């Protein structure tokens, strides 16, 4: 019986140690992410310049370009921008 209780104690201590270490990793990495974002924010997230239709004589109306740009901005929460819009023939 003594060996069984020793095994259970080792199991509990080992699993508890792993759990605590994983929690520490999670909290320290979240803190590091917040710290880096505070002092070195991402400079690539700037408003997209106006996008013109490229290519052929068929131009895309400005209202449609604005709608596409707004939809991409909402869907990606401002992390992406429209660079080029082509009309498919």
Cα(first) to Cα(last) distance is 80 Å
Strand content: under 5%
Structural class by SSE content: mainly alpha
Helix count from the secondary structure assignment: 2
Mean pLDDT, all residues: 84
Largest sheet: number of strands, sense, barrel closure: none
Describe the secondary-structure layout.
Elements: H1 2-39, H2 62-75
Characteristic key phrases:
2 helices; single chain; mainly alpha; elongated; 89 residues
Structural description of this entry:
The protein is an all-alpha fold. The model has no long low-confidence stretch (mean pLDDT 84). The chain starts with a helix and ends in a 14-residue tail after the last helix. It has two helices and no strands. It has helices at residues 2-39, 62-75. The longest helix has 38 residues, at 2-39. It is elongated.
